[in-house]
Amino acid sequence: MNTTILVVEDEKPLSEDITQYLTKSGITCTQAYTYNSAVTKLGSAAFDCLVIDIGLPDGSGIDLINYVKRKKYESGLIIISARNSLEDKLEGFETGADDFLVKPFHLSELNARINAFVRRKKFDNQEVLEFNEISIQLQSKTVFVNGKKISLTKKEMDLLIYFISNTNKLITKDAIAYNLWKNNADLAISSEIIYTHIKNLRKKLVENGAKDYVQAVYGVGYKFGE
Amino acid sequence: MKLLYKNILINALASLLIIFVGGVITYFFIVHKIQQESHEHLIGEKQVVEKQLQQGISPDFFKNNIGDEIIFKQITALSGRKPFFKTIEENEEYEEVNEQLEKTNNDVFNTQAIVFEYAAKDKDYQVTIIKSSDNDEELGDNISQAVTISAGLMIIAIVLVNTFIYKRIWRPFYRTLKELKNFTISKHQAIKISKTNTTEFNQLNNAITLMAEKISHDYLSLKEFTENASHEIQTPLAIINSKIEMCLQDKQLGSEQATLLIEASHAVNNLVNLNKGLITLTKLDNNQIDLPSDVNVNDKIHKRLNLFEEFIQEKDIDVNLKIDKSITIKINPALAGILFDNLIKNAVKHNIDTGGKIDIEVTKECIKIANTGIEPKVSTDKFFERFYKDSKQESLGLGLAIVKKICDIYGFKISYNYTEGLHIIILHIL
């Protein structure tokens, strides 16, 4: 079954991009630009996950989270906020948000987070993430190529999950750096470390019989896919 | 100078002046009175002398019998001049009494005399009666003594009374002062000052309370503005970023356009980081952070080194630690995190590409972080200023400005220098 998402974001261009990007990844998106329309849309359909901007024209995203909790909807809640303050984060998590993403973020990052959340929620992490001959058992964090177990470092594993979550997408070096190193992304960008990790991951996959799915786009980033 | 001392000094000086002027006035008043009295006395004497002369008593007789000095001078004819008073000074024409006058004549209290003419039966006389001034002599001394003593007493009284009154009257002022010193804007607490019975202090307290409320209000608006500004800036940046990302997904995109987009994306990322840094600096500027506690330096440094381990290994950096494990500094833990994060990240980021080193030394006095790196091309005086950056580096230079700001908040002195291929930053924590 398709994953369904409600994007509650008042900035139409941003909402548009999120919707387009996620739709291309096979997620069904509904858009709401205001608190009230979000409430209306929540009443007419069930969503796996809500992507909520804190600053809405007619209310706060926090209020919406409270509303969802009050109504006992099962949806996952991912806050996207321009505010990076600790208080906002704490308030967000206290009210029951599942994740917090600070604007500006990479669409690939949002996609990866939604996928991770849905996997956790729907399949209780029992799910096996598959891409052709590669499969990852998420709970035990083990990777198999053609059924044969291979060993990856933690960063290589995270990188592979990130790639599979964003297959056939051009992923920039910055996005990878942010996904793997968060606040220290700048250090990663200024060093060769991303290249090193990707090189090692490719080597391990290919040596164990997988096709080389990683495609370097010179000066821009990488693409994972056929 | 303390208000108390200033007050006493001014009061004492003013009193001295008043006492001096008052003394002079008193003095001349008394002199005048004495003169007046002398004149009355002399008029009385004159009547006595005239009466006795009428009775035919010889002038020679007077010489010996009256306390005052009487001088008879025989004149050939009456001038018709009315009796007049005279102040006897030295070298007067009365040679006979000069000797005596010299004795009695003090500088100020000049001896008074009355001069009148008298026509006896056979002879005309000009009579001069000189008042004996034995009693007046000491008066001058007495007056100046009295004035001096009262001046002394008055000054002692002024000091005592001032000290006492000062302490009583100014008590509310010091209470207000204490309250003001304890006022921290970030705590959002109103200033509470109890009422006094002095109108001016009540007015002052009211003004202060109002001002504090206004400041708190403005502060909150500023904080809100800062947050809103960050929000307003981040959102368009997020849109630019997502647009770039969407563009990059276009399969028809040529590699040249892709490179252009990536360059734009880097610029946006720089802007994002700059904005974040500025928000942090604004927060620090507004002292929006309080609650310091004892933070172990060793723990913080190790935590950061662990975080950056991957990058340290990647650049093959040799880390040497010389840390006194017991050293703690009083600082807000979150700020300590930012501080060491920036310092150590800098040492890793601006290290040479491979085989460099980082030396960290922590003693009671200072924290020293030295790392290998290329020599800065520009003057290092402005190293800790906002937006300083070496032309070659990509860093936006806010990291060290934030470090400096945090050091300023806690009173740590920070210095930078470059020697023998090492960037050395020293924090004086004592």
Structural description of this entry:
The complex is a heterodimer of chains A (226) and B (430). The mean pLDDT of chain A is 89. Chain A is 45% helix and 25% strand. In chain A, α1 (12-24) crosses α5 (107-123), α2 (35-44) packs parallel to α3 and α6 (154-165) packs across α9 (193-207). In chain A, the strands form four sheets. Chain A has a five-stranded parallel β-sheet, sandwiched between helices. Chain A has a four-stranded antiparallel β-sheet with strand order 8-9-10-11, with helices on one face. Chain A has a three-stranded antiparallel β-sheet with strand order 12-14-13. With 226 residues, chain A is α/β, with parallel strands linked by helices. With 430 residues, chain B is an alpha+beta fold. Chain B has eleven helices and eleven strands. Chain B has helices at 3-54, 59-65, 95-104, 137-169, 171-181, 199-248, 255-285, 297-307, 309-314, 333-349, 398-410; strands at 69-75, 84-88, 111-119, 124-130, 293-296, 318-323, 328-331, 357-362, 366-372, 413-419, 422-428. In chain B, the strands form three sheets. In chain B, strands 6-8-9-11-10 form a five-stranded mixed β-sheet, covered by helices on one side. Chain B has a four-stranded antiparallel β-sheet with strand order 1-4-3-2. A two-stranded antiparallel sheet of chain B has the order 5-7.
* Global structural class of chain A: alpha/beta
Order of helices and strands of chain B: HHEEHEEHHHHEHHEEHEEHEE
Low-confidence stretches of chain B: 95-108
- Please tell me what the overall shape of chain B is: rod-shaped
**How big a fraction of the residues of chain B is strand?**
15-25%
- Can you tell me the residue ranges of chain A where pLDDT is under 50 for at least 5 consecutive residues? none
Query: Residue share in helices of chain B?
Result: 55-70%
Q: Count of helices of chain A?
A: 9
Biggest protein-protein interface?
A-B, 41 and 42 residues
Described by strand count, sense and barrel closure, the largest sheet of chain A is:
5 strands, parallel
Number of strands of chain B: 11
Rg result of chain B = 48 Å
Sketch the topology of chain A as an H/E string, one letter per element.
EHEHEEEHEHEHEEEEHEHHHEE
